[in-house]
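Title: [Solved] VOC family protein 3D structure

Original question kept below for reference.
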Amino acid sequence: MIDHISLNVGNLEKSKLFYLTALAPLGYSAVQYLQNWTAIGKHNHPMLWIQQSTITRPRLALAFKAESQQQVDEFYTAAINSGGVSHGEPESRQQESSSNRLSYSAFVLDPDGHIIEVFKPLE
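Solution (posted by the thread starter after getting help):
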C-alpha cells in the first residue's frame, strides 16, 4: 500500500492553492510546511507532498477516492475555480483499471498538467 507520493510543481504557491482548494471537499488539508514543500493529507498524515521544482515531467495521473458523488462534483467545481482545466466533467464511466467497474468520476489538469481524478465507485 502506498503511504504517500511526492509531486514536482513549477509554482508552489499556485499549486498549493489549487490542491488545498480542490481536495478540501474530500477532507484533505495542509498538514505540514517545509521550505519549498507542502504536505497535504488527512488526520495529520501527509499523503501528497508537493515540491517546488524546475522539473515537472513526466506528468503524472493521481486518483483520489470520494465517499459520494457530491464530493466528486464539489472537487470538480473547486478545482476549476482554483485554476484547474477540465479533462473530463463529472459523469459515470467505466473504470478500466478495475475490471471495467462503473464509477462516477471527474478529471482535471492541475497547473502543471498533471491529471487529477476523483472517483466514487458505483455498485
